[in-house]
Specification:
A hairpin with a 4-residue loop joins β29 and β30. Helix content is about 30%, strand content about 25%. The protein is built from 17 helices and 35 strands. The protein starts with a strand and ends in an 8-residue tail after the last strand. It has about 700 residues and is an alpha+beta fold.
Length: about 700
C-alpha cells in the first residue's frame, strides 16, 4: 500500500482532509462548496499540501468519500430517470410492501418513487423464478420506448425486469438496444446493481443507482480534471457504504454504493481505535455540521447489514424511506449537527433539526448571511467554542449574531435569555442523540450502557461527555485528529467488493458442486473490480449464505466454509440462529435465498502521530466561562491546547481542550488523560459512596 496517502471526505457543511506520509499525519477542514463540490476539495488539498511540505506529485493514492449521492436522493436533485419493467408490473415500485410504517398516523406518507409513473415503461417478456423463459423478449416493445425517452429528455434508465436476478439475458438485450440508439444514456441493470430476490427492493435500488449516476459521473470527471491541474496524477479510490474502498470504474457503474461513505469511514476509525485500545464493546459517535451518526462496534468489528433506507419520512421509523440493497455499516443517523437549526414547535417546545444551515449560509455566528439559530450558535454562547479559533482559525465566529438569533428564534417566544435558549438547544440535541442510540441498540438486541463512547467529527467532542452521562457511559475516547475522524478512517479502509446472487435452494436438495461453480463465478466478478484498486495484493475471501427455516419471512447471514457440505451449513445456520434468537427448531427444513462473496485486500497500516511530550502547568493555560448544566451558571474553565497534554498527565473538569478542528468539553466530574496511542480519555470521577 502506498505510504503517502490523501483522504478527502465531503460533508454537508465541511470537507475534511487527512494526509499521511513520512512526517506523520496532517489534517485540514474547509467549508464545503455545494454549487461546485470539487472546488472545496481542490482548495483543501492545496492547503494541506502546503502545510505538510509535500508536492502534489508526491501523493501516491487519493481516497475519497462524499455525501453527494445521498444528498441528491434526499433533495431529489438527480437525473430525469425512466424505469423499464416487465409488462403489468409498472406499479411494483410504488406499491412497495403494501403496508403502513406508521399504522395509526393517517397523514403518514413514504417518499414518492424516484421515477414517476409516466416514465415507468413496460416491455413484453417474462421469466420464472428459476430464470427460465416463459415469454421471449419482444424487441419491438423495446424499440417503441425510444421516442418516449427522447421526448422526455431522459438522462438515465433503470432496467428492472421480473426475476432478472436468476437470468440477466433479457435485461442485457434491452440495454444493448437502448445503447445502440441512445449512446449518451446512462443505463443501470438490476441484474448488476442488485441481483437478488425481492422485486421492490431490487427496483428501488436500481432506480436510485440510475438517478445519481449522471451527477456522480459529472462530479468525478470535474474532480479528475482539477486534480490533474493541481499536479495529482495518482490513482483514486472511493469509499463505499460498507467501509471498504472501490475503484473508480466500479464507483461510476454503481454510485449507489457510495451512499453513506463518510459515516462508514468514521466507523472504520472507531473500530481501529477499539482494536488499538483493546476495547471489546464500544459505540462510535460521529457529529459533524449536518448530522450525527451512531454505530455499535463489538470485538473491533462494526455492525453491518445488506439493507438501508434513504430519505426516511420519519427519521427513526423503518419502512418510511427508499430501500436500497447494498453492503452497509449499520448505524443510526439523525439531523443533529453543528448546523442543525433550533426552533419552537406548535406545542411551545424546543425542537432541533433535521433542517440545517449547511455551509451556505451557515449558522448565524458564521456571519455569512445565516439568520437562524443553530447548534453551533448555542455552543458558542455556552462558552464551548473560541470565536477566534474556529475550524483552525479559518474564520471568526460572531457571538453577537449568535445571541441575536437565539433571542429571535427561541428566547422571545419562550421568555428565555440567550444563554438559557442555548442550553435548551444543547439539551434537546443531546437527548435526541441519546434516544436514537438507545433505540438503535434495542433494534439489534444490544445495550449502550457500559460501553466506551468514541467521539469524533467537528462537533462530537463538544457534546460527547454530556451524551455519555445520558447513556450511562463512564468512559469517552476522543481520537487524535478527531475533527476529521472519517477522513482518517478512509486511510485505514481495505480495497474490497461484495458480489451477491439470489439462488434459492432447500438445504436437503443443495448440490455442492453447483455451489462451487457459483462461488467461482462470483469470485471472478469481484476480483476484476478489486484488482483495479488493489493491484496484485493478496486477497481474502468471505462467503455468506442468507438462510432461514422453511416458511419464515426473513433470513439471517451465515458464514460459509470453503469447501463446505450441507451438514456443515446446517450446523453453521443453527449456531447463528441460536446466537440471535436463543433457540433452534428441531426437524424443520432450512432454505437459502441468497449468497454473497466479499473479496478484500489487506487494510493499510497507519501510525498515529507521535504523542506530545510538551508539558505545561495550569498557570500556562487560558480560561473561559463555560455553562454548567448542573448549576445553571457559567463557571471558569481552563482552556488547554491539546498538544500540551502528555501521556500520563491529567486535566480535571471543567476544562476545554482545544485543537485545530474541534474542542473537547470536559465537564465538572470528569478527568481527562491521554492514552499511549495519543487519544484523549475522559472518565467520570467516582464520588464518595459511588460504587460504579
Amino acid at each position: 500500500m502506498p505510504s503517502i496517502r490523501l483522504a478527502v471526505d465531503i460533508g454537508g457543511t465541511f470537507t475534511d482532509l487527512a494526509l499521511t506520509g513520512p512526517h506523520g499525519l496532517f489534517t485540514d477542514k474547509v467549508l464545503t462548496t455545494p454549487s461546485a463540490p470539487e472546488r472545496g476539495v481542490l482548495d483543501g488539498i492545496a492547503e494541506l499540501l502546503s502545510t505538510s511540505g509535500l508536492a502534489a506529485g508526491d501523493v501516491e493514492l487519493l481516497v475519497h468519500g462524499t455525501t453527494l449521492a445521498t444528498n441528491a436522493l434526499i433533495e431529489r436533485r438527480g437525473a430525469r430517470t425512466a424505469l423499464i419493467v416487465t409488462e403489468g408490473l409498472r406499479d411494483s415500485v410504488e406499491m412497495a410492501q403494501e403496508n403502513r410504517f406508521a399504522q395509526y398516523d393517517i397523514s403518514s406518507n413514504r417518499p414518492e418513487p424516484l421515477v414517476p409513473r409516466y416514465l415507468r415503461l413496460p416491455v413484453t417478456e417474462r421469466l420464472n423464478w428459476r430464470g427460465e423463459v416463459l415469454s421471449a423478449l419482444d424487441e419491438d416493445s423495446v424499440a417503441a420506448l425510444l421516442p418516449v425517452l427522447r421526448d422526455n429528455a431522459v438522462e438515465a434508465v433503470a432496467i428492472g425486469l421480473i426475476h432478472a436476478y436468476a437470468n440477466p439475458a433479457h435485461e442485457q438485450r434491452v440495454a444493448e438496444i437502448l445503447a445502440a440508439e441512445l449512446p449518451e444514456l446512462y443505463i443501470s441493470l438490476s441484474s448488476e446493481v442488485c441481483p437478488e430476490i425481492r422485486e421492490y427492493e431490487r427496483q428501488s435500488t436500481t432506480c436510485a443507482n440510475a438517478y445519481v449516476q449522471p451527477l456522480m459521473a459529472h462530479y468525478l470527471s470535474e474532480l479528475s480534471v482539477g486534480l490533474k491541474q493541481l499536479g495529482l496524477n495518482c490513482p483514486m479510490l472511493m469509499m463505499s457504504s460498507g467501509g471498504t474502498l472501490m475503484g473508480l470504474d466500479a464507483a461510476q457503474r454503481f454510485p449507489i454504493r457510495l451512499v453513506e461513505s463518510g459515516p462508514a469511514g468514521g466507523a472504520i476509525l472507531a473500530a481501529q481505535i477499539a482494536a488499538d485500545e483493546q476495547l471489546d464493546s464500544v459505540v462510535s459517535f460521529d457529529m459533524g455540521g449536518t448530522t450525527a451518526k451512531i454505530c455499535l462496534i463489538d470485538n473491533a468489528t462494526p455492525l453491518t447489514s445488506r439493507s438501508f433506507e434513504v430519505a426516511r419520512a420519519y427519521r427513526f421509523m423503518r419502512g418510511s424511506g427508499l430501500p436500497v440493497r447494498i453492503p452497509v455499516i449499520e448505524m443510526v443517523e439523525i439531523g443533529a449537527g453543528g448546523g442543525s437549526l433550533g426552533s419552537v414547535d406548535a406545542l411551545g417546545r424546543i425542537a432541533v433539526g433535521p433542517q440545517s444551515a449547511g455551509s451556505e449560509p451557515g449558522p448565524a455566528s458564521y456571519a455569512r448571511g445565516g439568520m437562524h439559530a443553530a447548534v453551533t450558535d448555542a455552543d458558542l454562547t455556552l462558552g464551548k467554542l473560541d470565536p477566534n479559533n474556529f475550524a483552525g482559525g479559518r474564520f471568526k465566529l460572531d457571538a453577537a449574531a449568535a445571541g441575536a438569533a437565539l433571542d429571535r428564534d427561541l428566547g422571545q417566544a419562550l421568555g428565555l435569555s440567550s444563554a438559557e435558549a442555548a442550553f435548551g438547544i444543547a439539551e434537546v440535541v443531546e437527548e435526541n442523540m441519546a434516544s436514537a442510540a438507545r433505540m438503535h441498540a434495542v433494534e439489534w438486541g444490544q445495550d449502550v450502557r457500559g460501553r466506551v463512547l468514541i467521539a469524533f467529527g467537528g462537533a462530537a467532542p463538544l457534546h460527547a461527555a454530556r451524551l455519555a452521562q445520558k447513556l450511562d457511559i463512564n468512559h469517552v475516547l476522543i481520537p487524535k485528529g478527531a475533527g476529521v475522524g472519517s477522513a482518517i478512517g478512509f486511510l485505514r479502509a481495505p480495497v474490497a467488493y461484495e458480489v451477491v446472487r439470489s439462488r434459492y435452494a432447500r438445504l436437503s436438495e443443495l448440490a455442492t458442486d453447483t455451489l462451487t461453480t457459483l462461488f467461482a463465478d462470483m469470485r471472478a466478478e469481484a476480483e476484476v473490480l478489486v484488482r483495479s484498486g488493489a493491484g496484485d495484493a493478496q486477497l481474502t475471501e468471505q462467503r455468506l449464505a442468507y438462510m432461514r427455516y422453511l416458511g419464515q419471512g426473513h433470513e439471517i447471514p451465515v458464514t460459509v466454509a470453503s469447501p463446505t457440505s450441507t451438514a456443515e451449513l446446517r450446523d453453521a445456520f443453527e449456531s447463528a440462529y441460536a446466537a440471535l434468537f436463543g433457540r433452534t427448531i428441531d426437524g424443520l427444513e432450512v432454505e437459502i435465498l441468497s449468497w454473497t462473496l466479499a473479496l478484500a485486500a489487506p487494510a493499510a497500516a497507519m501510525d498515529w502521530p507521535n504523542v506530545s511530550t510538551t508539558t505545561a502547568t495550569p498557570a500556562d493555560f487560558g480560561e473561559r466561562l463555560l455553562f454548567d448544566h448542573v448549576s445553571g451558571k457559567f463557571d471558569a474553565a481552563l482552556t488547554v491546547p491539546r498538544a500540551y497534554i502528555a501521556a500520563g498527565n491529567s486535566i480535571t473538569g471543567p476544562a476545554l481542550i482545544e485543537e485545530d478542528q474541534t474542542t473537547t468539553v470536559v465537564p465538572s466530574g470528569f478527568v481527562a488523560t491521554v492514552t499511549a496511542e495519543g487519544h484523549l480519555s475522559l472518565q467520570i470521577q467516582p464520588q464518595a459512596g459511588d460504587e460504579r
